[in-house]
Amino acid sequence: MIHTAGPYLLASLLIGLGLYGILARRNAVLMLIGAELVLGGGGLLLVTAGALGRDLSWSGQVLTLFVITIAAAEVVIALAVIVAAYRRHGHIDLTQDAG
Amino acid sequence: MTGLDLAFATTGLITAAAAALAVTTRHVVHSALWLVVTLLGLAGCYLVLGAELVALVQVLVYVGAVVVLVIVALMLTRAPIGPRAEHTTGPAHRVLAACVGAGTGGLVAAVLLPTAARTPVRPGGSEELARQIFSTWVWPFELLSLLLLAALVGAFAVAGLTTSQEGTR
């Protein structure tokens, strides 16, 4: 037996912290780390929903696997873009103009 | 308070503390390393919730691949070592970001917490999960491999785009 308040609280914490990380960072790679935290919170919610026991097609766990894979693909593209921007502009500071 | 609750509270506290450090630390590389702790803690949470396969995939894909990619990107963009204030925006911007983050997190918690209840954890079963992936979810699963291929080609294209532009300059 487990009380689902714990997972719910942790998921909302991760989403809030990730959003703060996305908004408060100037370095593009650090902003991506915030996005990863938001995705982690979403995955935790999916797994918790799947663990409730009325999930005949195991969609909670399967969709979390899909989210993890899609996040890997997203990170590959995002980092390629960030490295390309660094080579072009010499910095990845999101608050500066592209010079 | 059962043993599972205690186990989840422990892993959850580690995860939340590491996540808070990952978004606030002034060292760029430390941020990536705290992300490792966060993702490992999240894998522990999945284990407590009875999702062994998801926990293992989380460790393999996130800690093994995504974090390595992030650290390589930090190296390629010549991330400075040591504490720097310039990775974070100014105080006013930070307060605004904290308000938005707290508001969104609070909203999610306010929606979810009233539905929280004490439920039995379904025992994990990789066999049944595998059967479901390859029966109910087989088409999304195959599409996912196509997505990974597209991401690979896209990353190559982005890298090739910049090198060819540099060559013509």
Brief summary of the model shown:
With 99 residues, chain A is mostly helical. Chain A has three helices and one strand, in the order βααα.
Question: How does this model look, in words?
Answer:
The complex is a heterodimer of chains A (99) and B (169). Chain A is built from three helices and one strand. In chain A, 76% of the residues lie in helices and 2% in strands. The termini of chain A are far apart. Chain A has 99 residues and is mostly helical. Among the domains of chain B are: 1-84, Four Helix Bundle (Hemerythrin (Met), subunit A) (Up-down Bundle); 137-169. Helix content of chain B is 76%, strand content 1%. Chain B contains six helices and one strand. The mean pLDDT of chain B is 88. The interface between A and B is large, with 75 and 90 residues.
Largest pleated sheet of chain A = none
Tell me the name of the CATH class of the domain at 1-84 in chain B.
Mainly Alpha
- Unreliable segments of 5+ consecutive residues of chain A: none
Shape of chain A: elongated
Written as H for each helix and E for each strand, in order along the chain, the element string of chain A is EHHH
Q: Compute the average pLDDT of chain B.
A: 88
* Biggest interface found: A-B, 75 and 90 residues
* Integer-rounded radius of gyration of chain A: 17 Å
Separation, N- and C-terminal Cα atoms of chain B: 66 Å
The CATH homologous superfamily of the domain at 1-84 in chain B is termed: NADH-ubiquinone/plastoquinone oxidoreductase chain 6, subunit NuoJ
Beta fraction of chain B: under 5%
> Which sequence of SSEs, written as H and E, runs from N to C of chain B?
HHHHEHH
Largest sheet of chain B: none
Briefly note the structural class of the backbone of chain B: mainly alpha
Helix content of chain B: over 70%
Compute the average pLDDT of chain A. Answer: 89
In DSSP terms (H or I, runs of 4 or more residues), the helix count of chain B works out at 6
Give the beta-strand count of chain B. 1
The helix count of chain A comes to 3
How many angstroms does the end-to-end distance of chain A come to?
A: 57 Å
CATH architecture group name of the domain at 1-84 in chain B: Up-down Bundle
